[in-house]
């Protein structure tokens, strides 16, 4: 990615100095993290399982990032956030709307949010209540080593996806889908709504990527990095890796093929209007 001349966002809240340290928490049935996710999600009607959903039941976050790597990732994250601010502000303005920038919170291990306790084992996530994206930079290390999805554009896709949830929140999509999930007649139906929400965020991330490509910000191999990342966090792939089998009705974020297809759709068109995953 060519980001050297891009500004940094002013909407980054760095909590790393006050972090509680790297925490290793299982995600299996009865685990503390599972309890937190269920409790908070039920209360607010949102999915706080992060970018990857519930596919990795015993996912544990560890990191070997050194201070230099963290500094580079912090700069990348800030510049990527700034690019989303510019791109979505322009889109909202074109449609007679006002865009409110989200805040990116950098933390280590665990942190408090308006949606409950956030932990790095969740992966990156967005809280619609405080309109903040939460990110432990060590997720880059996990993408590289555990998900085999490396590269700056792959990591940037992660941030753009979470900002996509913020766009949904501002457009009223989040509240509508929350109500629809509460009225769902089955867990499978509620899960499908969640999948649609996640795929739309992937498509919105693609729209962001389209604008970067248009501005000649992408380098050779960047698009392939993002495609690989989108597939790496598919529910089917994560379930196969952690369980050895796949349960489609339990998907909350979409299959690898779906996530790639919707990200590609946004990337190809650059038009948020094509991101209607609900029809």
Give the gist of this structure.
By secondary structure, the protein is of the alpha/beta class.
What do these coordinates show?
GO terms for molecular function: metallopeptidase activity. The chain is α/β, with parallel strands linked by helices and 279 residues long. It has one domain. The chain is 50% helix and 8% strand. A four-stranded mixed β-sheet has the order 1-2-6-5, covered by helices on one side. A hairpin with a 4-residue loop joins strand 5 and strand 6. Helix 2 (67-94) packs across helix 4, helix 5 (173-183) packs antiparallel against helix 6 and helix 6 packs parallel to helix 9 (256-269). Mean pLDDT is 86; it is low at 20-46 and 54-60.
Record keyword descriptors for this entry:
9 helices, 50% helix, 279 residues, two-stranded antiparallel ribbon, alpha/beta, 8% strand, transmembrane helix, metallopeptidase activity, membrane, transmembrane
Distance between the termini: 34 Å
Spatial arrangement of strands, main beta sheet: 1-2-6-5
Query: How much strand?
Result: 5-15%
Indicate the mean pLDDT: 86
Backbone shape: globular
Largest β-sheet summary: 4 strands, mixed
List the helices and strands and how they pair.
Blueprint: E1 12-14, H1 32-44, H2 67-94, E2 103-106, E3 110-113, E4 116-119, E5 125-127, E6 132-135, H3 139-145, H4 152-170, H5 173-183, H6 187-214, H7 222-232, H8 235-242, H9 256-269
Parallel strand pairs: 1-2, 2-6
Antiparallel strand pairs: 3-4, 5-6
Helix pairs in contact: 2-4, 4-6, 4-7, 5-6, 6-9, 7-9
Membrane topology: Single-pass membrane protein
Keywords: Hydrolase, Membrane, Metalloprotease, Protease, Transmembrane, Transmembrane helix
Subcellular location: Membrane
């Amino acid at each position: 990615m060519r980001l050297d001349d891009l500004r940094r966002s002013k909407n980054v809240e760095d909590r790393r100095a006050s972090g509680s340290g790297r925490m290793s928490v299982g995600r299996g049935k009865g685990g503390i993290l599972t309890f937190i996710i269920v409790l908070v999600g039920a209360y607010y009607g949102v999915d706080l399982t992060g970018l990857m959903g519930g596919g990795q039941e015993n996912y544990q976050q560890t990191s070997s990032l050194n201070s230099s790597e963290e500094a580079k990732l912090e700069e990348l994250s800030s510049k990527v956030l700034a690019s989303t601010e510019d791109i979505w502000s322009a889109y909202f303005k074109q449609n007679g709307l006002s865009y409110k920038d989200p805040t990116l919170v950098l933390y280590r291990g665990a942190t408090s949010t308006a949606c409950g306790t956030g932990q790095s084992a969740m992966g990156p996530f967005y809280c619609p209540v405080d309109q903040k994206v939460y990110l432990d930079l060590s997720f880059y290390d996990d993408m590289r080593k555990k998900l085999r999805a490396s590269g700056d554009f792959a990591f940037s896709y992660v941030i753009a996806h979470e900002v996509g949830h913020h766009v949904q929140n501002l457009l009223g999509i989040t509240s509508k889908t929350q109500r629809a999930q509460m009225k769902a007649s089955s867990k499978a139906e509620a899960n499908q709504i969640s999948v649609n929400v996640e795929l739309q965020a992937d498509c919105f991330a693609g729209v962001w990527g389209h604008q970067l490509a248009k501005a000649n910000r992408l380098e050779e191999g960047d698009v392939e990095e993002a495609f690989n990342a989108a597939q790496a966090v598919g529910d089917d792939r994560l379930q196969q890796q952690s369980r050895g089998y796949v349960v489609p009705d339990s998907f909350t974020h979409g299959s690898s093929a779906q996530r790639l297809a919707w990200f590609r759709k946004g990337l190809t068109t650059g038009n948020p209007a094509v991101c209607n995953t609900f029809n």
